[in-house]
Amino acid sequence: MTVHQRRIKMIQFTLESVAYECQVQSWKLDPGIEDGERQYTQCPDGTFIEETDDDPSLELKFFSDFRSAGIDSYLWANRGRVVDFQLDHHPEITGEHVRWSGTLIVKPGPAGGEARATETTEVTMQIVTLNEMERIG
Fold it and tell me: Taking a C-beta distance cutoff of 8 angstroms, is the pair 86, 100 a contact?
């Protein structure tokens, strides 16, 4: 197989069906799959690996937007609520467009920063349900 590379250029991202992708600078969806701890007993074949629970999360860095319909205003007004999300990766590329969806717990990021710096917000939200990755096109 030959090498395949792609730059991240475009996503589609919604919270409760409202699009916020134009504010997003970077993102990382972590499935949160942890390795289990190896356990030993005193019998000949007495080793096993403990089962773990997934802890998926969505990490976002975005340009802050505190306007009434902005993403920061949404996160602050809805903090702690469980809402639907959808993230489409490479929606513009046929054969590579994939989608993750589910529910997450809304969490606002910290506000503020240095004088004259472009205002950004970084936040990691806990995913409650993460559907299987869906191939769209």
Answer: yes
| C-alpha span between 105 and 78 (Å, rounded) | 9
In DSSP terms, 104 is beta-bridged to: 83, 127
Helix or strand run (H / E) with residue 104: strand 98-105
0.70 exceeded by pTM: yes
Distance of CA 23 to the CA centre of its chain: 15
List, as own/partner pairs, every contact residues 83-86 make where C-beta atoms lie below 8 angstroms and the sequence separation is at least 24, other chains included.
83/15, 83/16, 84/14, 84/15, 84/16, 84/17, 85/13, 85/14, 85/15, 85/58, 85/127, 86/12, 86/13, 86/14
54-100 confidence digits (pLDDT tens): 999 999 999 999 999 999 999 999 999 999 999 999 999 999 999 99
Contact assessment for residue 51 and residue 62, using Cβ atoms and an 8 Å cutoff: no
